[in-house]
Amino acid sequence: MRYVMHMIWFLLWAAAAPAQDMPPALQEMHQRADRLALENRLAEAEEVLRALLAELRKDNPENAPQLLTVEGQIASMRGRQGDRATELEMRRDIWERFRKVSTVYHPSHAIAQMDLAVALAATGQRREALPLAIEAVSVAEALHGPDGFVANIWRGKLAEMLRAENYRQEALDLFQASLAGLERNIAEVNDPNSGGLYTASITMGTNIAELLKERGEDAAALAQLQAIMPRVETYYGKGDAETIAYKLKLADYLVDLDQYDEMDRVIREVLPQIDAIYEGDNPFTARALSVHALYFLRGGPEVASFAQGLEMLQAAADMFDASFPKGPQPGAVHESWGKAVLNLSAVLSDTGDWDGSVRAALKAEQLGQASRNTLLQALDRAGIEEAWSWSDVIEESYRIAQNSTQTDAGHALYQMVTRLTLGDSPAAALHRAITDANATESELQSEYAALMLTPVAERDPTHEARLKADLAATSREQKRLTDELYATAPDFSAMVSGGKITIAETQALLGPDEAVVVLDVGPAPDDWDFIFIITADQRFWIPMPIDPTQLDEAIADLRASVDLKLGVRAATSLKAQESGSTSGFALGAAHWLYTQTFEVAEPYLEGKTHLYVELRGGMAAIPPHLLVRRPATSLEEADWLIRHHAITVIPSVFAMKAMELTRDKPHAPQPILGIANPDFDPSGTAPVQVSSNRGGALSPLPETFGEVRDVAASMGAGAEAVIQQAAASEAAIKSADLSQYQVLYFATHGLVSGDEVKDLVVEEPALALTPGDGEDGLLTASEIALLRMNPDWVVLSACNTAVGQTPDAEALSGLAQSFLYAGARALLVSHWPVESQSAVSLMTDIFARRAANPDLPAAEAQRQAMLAMIDGPRTEWHHPAYWAPFILVGDPDR
After folding, report:
1. 6 or 638, which is more confident?
2. Neighbours of 46 (CB within 10 A)
């Protein structure tokens, strides 16, 4: 609170010039209000300010800067007394009135704008706040110099907003630059009470330490915190509550680096200081006890001090409860309280109190301190020791599994389902407009954050002005659209339950021959890894014996043995291998991966012909159907997983509910639009080539026209449903009404980040099409996301459309995510560069089987087509590189 008080006093002081023109009596009233505010006598300060405002209104026009400045001070008093709504309303009004009488380059106008930005950020409206803050910082730099203290402090406020919006690197850079500037300001002034400079530098140093901590740079974070401690003690005093809070934070950082003796010294020093300020139960004592307990708990239950540490930790948890008698509300975040009960959960597990351990871990999650490992280990033991029923254990674990991994692909699917749930209503158009505006704003904010790090003298004023105008316009449009959406469809988010699904809901969606399999691989190397098997009438939750290091090595070996290393579609192909050899395929790795994952679920999958599989961690980098169930020395001996199950990959278990929600939505009237054999070089200048690390150049794809034509024919469409050469252009796709087609089929090259186009480097995944009509011929992921479509599925018969280049990539790359976002119900995408002839054979076979038997599920058609290649006469196609690259994502039959 003291930091807020001094910061507000400083900013008001910076704007106090208008007060100097007041008559002496009014100047005395203004000074009295300042003194009362500094003494935290807020209601009295507000009363004086309102009296001052009444006097000023007698002799000043309505929007006089002097009058508006005093209104801003009253708004501050409202906010500091907890009335955020009134403060924000006043800030908006003051800013709008300033805009009528001055430019933003009037100092008081600029302060009003930054005050509004800060108030917006404090109420969670950071997207609207950012463009206002960015412009205010620019004005401060122009008015006071790029190293002026106002600019340095305001850059710090802007950095706080960027951090809250997850622009962490940009925030860290701004904090560091601003702190360096503040150090120079402080050296020039040389006064601990210099208008908030000390408090601003302390806050910025703390933010830097916290950001370093979030990045795992614990030693650097500790050093940063230690560096600001002398200033904390100088400014606040050694026994002050603010200093105590910083020392407790320092103790936390010391624990994380196992510096327990130093932590013990800090806590023993601070406890008497707490006792001198507080009586009875209070959060400071609770926090100190919870940290100090760790000193006695070292070594586990065997050490003599363990019982004392447990008693201290339990007392700390009880004291937090007493200090906050209402308890945590959903979504509340109490970091220190959460850490205390999370540590208590771990200690209770050491004592065998598994019910207590689970409940403490769940409470920590509610307080914003979730730990997947602690929760799952406690739940597992609670089930084994019969402290919890296995039904409750599995249900809770299923919820945690959905919380612990939120993929971009899952978010894209969630967005698609939300739009389809809203249907063709005005709310659907509003929702889409909001998400599009969010994407635009994110790009603009990132661009402007980078600009803010450029010296003022080196900035392009025209570019900066355009960015500011675009940000302001986008922000206003977002607010307008959001307000209209909630007024139009206030209950729409409840339709999709926030992207979550229960086990019972999952089971209701499954037939007797279907199962959901979730490979719940934790994000950290030492995490516990589990597999969920959900059938229509049973549920299982089983530990997986995965060794993270061996897992990554096996996946790398397997990928290396199937990757054609084309860089592009059809550049080369694997050499035909003799039948009976392993053909260079890592059979051992494929079997070992099976033993670490699906083998533990094998007994429960008997008779389940169709699996919905959610892949996580490194397992997302490979198609599951090429895993081998039994040891084999040749491809002919390999017992591929695809022989036993048709497989649909889902980006999240919520996808099951998502697909059901879209079942009754209108389907497109036309069967297919095929895009094949683009003309990559209509001008004859070879504009597209792949960089040397990818190998080769984009070759023509004449065979793809026959591929897509045959697929279209199997669906009852004529050759006119397939466009090629000049017609297969980026411009044509963007102008077409894609919502009319049940299938969108792209048979072309896929490019990944780093590929070269003319003298540029591709910065995001893209499909190569015919250039012209103002388009470069590269349909990028961000452009795809803005298309309007309603296909049952999209086929990307191109390379690298499933995963990125790293073993721990998500199950879907940017291209596939974008199609889901744009409205595709299902996708057929490839895990590695495909060889053209085998791709033609596989794709036409899949659709021919579907055409011959309309009731044949898509996943089963894919399985049968794969087996036809595995068992077919072309021995080189027995290698998984040919038959296994494609995965089916989502279910077009639901």
Report:
1. 638
2. 21
